[in-house]
Design a protein that fits this description.
The chain has 402 residues and is of the alpha+beta class. The protein has three domains: 140 residues, Glutaredoxin, CATH 3.40.30; 120 residues, no CATH class; 89 residues, no CATH class. It contains eight helices and 21 strands. β16 and β17 form a beta hairpin.
């Protein structure tokens, strides 16, 4: 009787593993999804079931996603190394034209799919995002592409072994509590510092019913990240560490990230940034302040005098990686955008003082495309031939008063 019961349990376990699921889950049969619009293959479409007998790597990515590009190169090398033993399918929700431009400029050998419906079966919030499916069609890993190596794939091929860190963009740890670290409250303002808050990210400016600024809310940022928003520092290129500190002292781990909310009345409407800086300085052993240093940098130059003053009534700014769509912005804002893609600060020396409409659509995999886009507006980005004074944020150890 016990033996029969054991057989039934084992059979049920096997069946549950073999049963196809609608949403990809580790140790479950992968959804038999058909990827259409393969842009660089003789076949226009392919289903997961068609590839049974091969190890499949699904890579979800975008051309504007900086961390995705080295991952794509890595997977391209793995595809060439393992040849027919694996099949890498890369999937982006971007339009066909942009992806075809990437294919041409990168000369990739990976299958590139333009597909915007796959998120019904493959759930994620953050790219790059990788799913590995074994020869039997079972999902063996949902992970980050950094975890995929030759050794990992060889183990899966030879011993059917795989154990990688799970990337679950929707997981909420029920044991992780949000702790209020410090508050400053009265009838005119509320400042609250908290520990890491699950499921939250980004920055939100707070406004009153008339649209006037009344504060900010930031989630899950490192200490320098909190200061950066209050000092309006555009990128980490403008952080100078002092007193033996360096960026490794502020790892992107949950225990080193904080959330901050500042909300003020009209009385302090123009003071909330200074109030926030003072609050952080009082409550952290590491402080920050603005300064100026003479540094190497890039410069944004006017070489064509072809820009016309914006006729737009409103300012618009949409930034998604290497795609920028704007109306009525200053050159300093464009320089700040460009600084996201350089290793040094960018200084505006165009001499253009009006507001302009500027749209850039380029491929981060090919920096020449950025220079071509800027040239359309009579602009040029180049390394400065001399060091220049740069506004920086100095991060230093707080001096303890004796």
């Amino acid at each position: 009787m016990k033996r029969k019961l054991l057989i039934v349990i084992l059979t049920l376990c096997i069946l549950s593993c073999k049963k196809e699921t609608k949403i990809a889950q580790v140790n479950k049969l992968a959804p038999n999804y058909t990827f259409k619009n393969i842009l660089n293959s003789k076949e226009n479409e392919i289903s997961i079931r068609d590839l049974k007998g091969k190890i499949i790597i699904l890579e979800f990515w975008a051309t504007w996603c900086g961390p995705c590009l080295p991952a794509m190169k890595k997977l391209d090398h793995l595809q060439k190394d393992f040849k027919d033993e694996i099949e890498v399918i890369t999937v982006s929700s971007e339009n066909r034209e942009r992806l075809e431009d990437f294919i041409k400029r990168s000369n990739t050998s990976l299958r590139i799919v333009s597909d915007s419906t796959h998120t019904t079966n493959f759930k994620y919030n953050v790219i790059p995002h990788t799913i590995i499916i074994d020869k039997d069609g079972i999902v063996r890993a949902i992970t980050h592409p950094k975890n995929i190596t030759k050794e990992v794939l060889n183990k899966l091929i030879s011993n059917n072994e795989m154990e990688l860190d799970l990337k679950d963009d929707f997981y909420i740890d029920p044991t992780l509590e949000v702790k209020t670290i410090k508050t400053a409250i009265n009838s005119n303002y509320r400042i609250e510092l908290k520990s890491y808050e699950q499921g939250k990210r980004g920055v939100q400016l707070l406004t009153d019913s008339d649209g006037n600024s009344k504060g900010i809310e930031m989630w899950n940022r490192t200490i320098p990240g909190l200061y950066m928003n209050l000092f309006e520092i555009p990128t980490f290129n403008r952080i100078v560490f002092k007193d033996g500190l360096n960026e490794n002292d502020f790892p992107f781990e949950k225990e080193h990230r904080f959330s901050l909310k500042i909300e003020v009345s009209k009385k302090y409407q123009n003071k909330w940034k200074k109030m926030g800086i003072k609050f952080l300085n009082e409550n952290f052993d590491v402080n920050a302040k603005m300064s100026s240093e003479t540094l190497d940098c890039y410069v944004l130059k006017n070489i064509g005098n072809s820009l016309k003053k914006s006729a737009s009534d409103t300012t618009e700014y949409q930034f998604m990686g290497s795609i920028l769509k704007t109306k009525k912005i200053k050159m300093s804002q464009l320089a700040e955008y460009l600084e996201n893609f350089t290793a040094l600060p960018v200084v505006d020396i165009t001499g253009l003082n009006e507001a302009y409409d500027i749209d850039l659509d380029w491929q981060e995999a090919d920096p020449k495309t950025l220079y071509s886009e800027l040239k359309k507006y009579g602009l040029k980005l180049q390394k400065s031939d001399k060091k220049r004074p740069i506004k920086v944020m100095k991060v230093y150890k707080k001096k303890i008063q004796q």
